[in-house]
Amino acid sequence: MAAQSPNVRTCGRLLRGFLYHGKLKSTSKLPLSFSYYSTSASASASATQAAKKIPPSSKKGRLLTGATIGLIIAGGAYVSTVDEATFCGWLFTATKLVNPFFALLDPEVAHRLAVSAAARGWVPREKRPDPSILGLEVWGRKFSNPIGLAAGFDKNAEAVEGLLGLGFGFMEVGSVTPVPQEGNPKPRIFRLPELGAIINRCGFNSEGIQAVAKRLGAQHGKRKLDESASTNSTGIDEGKRGGKAGPGILGVNLGKNKSSEDAAKDYVQGVHTLSQYADYLVINVSSPNTPGLRQLQGRKQLKDLVKKVQAARDEMQWGEEGPPPLLVKIAPDLSKQDLEDIAAVAVALQVDGLIISNTTISRPDPVDKHLLSQEPGGLSGKPLFNLSTSVLKEMYILTKGKIPLIGCGGVSSGEDAYKKIRAGATLVQLYTAFAYGGPALIPQIKAELAECLEMDGYKSIHEVVGADCR
């Protein structure tokens, strides 16, 4: 039989000491890795005699507590024997245990807890490098992978570092409105778990651009300090992989206030305040939950709006990297004429990209038979996949592949992401699947996507973009 390691023997002493004496034995001989568990440990010579007088119920509680501590210590001993990549994978897999707990909570409460956990660093951090086949460059920015988190999850930029640390290639905060607003009355989020879908009518609930600017400014400053420290310590500039907020690329999604009568003014204010912290900007004119917003997708209205926002961005002072790219997020509920108009404006004004798509007000089968189908709001998740992918493909054809497109809507697997890319997407976003699947879904999607590329003989993402449109 193999000899026990010092860590395992120490675990045994700790556990026996707790079970028989009610206290952890002296830990002066413990290795450093166990110092956390031993800071308050002590024992007395008479502990054994005192233990005999303890009631059976107390002993049972102590037994359960001891077993729990034993598991924790055993876990610590195990961790000390595995490599970082294995441990990282274990942490992501372990998050699946928490998903059932979130499913029991009110959707908005669960959402708030998830954002708070990410903001506090209570989520795993991806330490494993992405498959090299997933790396790509768009708008002069390097993405380690094309999988991003869509706007709506971190509306107020509270958890940028934690969410990017999960392994997303990029993420989008917002939508952010100039003035704080509460959004629509609650309840406003409805789960359809058996369909992998959500209906929401949040209505741009936002803390406003000043609160978001403060958080992004702090994050941007931290990123600069980290870059400076890294360069000084190695003497080498390791390149510009990542963005202004951390290891991934950060997008800022701009919205308008519900009570605003001048939409362009709202978007311009967002550009002036937040563009300095963004790797790219998004004009959101497609949420179904703000009255009149989707009318801005009309040819004349969109053209006027984009011109004003572009002018606001370009009049600002920019360094070597230049201004952040400007994208427009559109709805899936558009006629062919609507799509042709949007494509014409995007090409003529050299819009940097389009996000396709937002949520839908339609209720495709089988959602139309669901008890919650009559709830007003936008539908997201698996039932949106076919509709949004069809619009994506049509827009790729209309723009002749000249404009980078971000595919969004119903992505829940690496194969889904692959289909979006083949339909014309350069990058892909998810939200609803992440809300249901949690952090473990991210490495799974990336691994599946890399496998799809390799099986079909592709060597990069760029080779696949629009493959189904050729």
Poorly predicted runs of 5 or more residues:
1-8, 18-54, 236-240
Looking across the biggest beta sheet, what order are the strands in? Answer: 3-4-7-8-9-10-12-13
Distance between the termini: 63 Å
Largest sheet composition: 8 strands, parallel, barrel
Q: State the CATH class of the largest domain.
A: Alpha Beta
Report on this model:
This protein is α/β, with parallel strands linked by helices. The chain has 2 domains: 6-81, no CATH class; 91-469, Alpha-Beta Barrel (TIM Barrel). The protein has 16 helices and 13 strands. An 8-stranded parallel β-barrel has the order 3-4-7-8-9-10-12-13, surrounded by 4 helices. Helix 11 links the parallel strand 9 and strand 10. Helix 9 runs parallel beside helix 10 (299-314), helix 11 (336-348) packs across helix 12 and helix 13 (414-422) crosses helix 15. It is globular, with a radius of gyration of 26 Å. Pathway: Pyrimidine metabolism; UMP biosynthesis via de novo pathway; orotate from (S)-dihydroorotate (quinone route): step 1/1. InterPro entries: Aldolase_TIM, DHO_dehydrogenase, Dihydroorotate_DH_2, Dihydroorotate_DH_cat, Dihydroorotate_DH_CS. This is Dihydroorotate dehydrogenase (quinone), mitochondrial.
Keywords:
eight-stranded parallel β-barrel, alpha/beta, TIM Barrel, globular, three-stranded antiparallel beta sheet, 13 strands, 470 residues, 16 helices
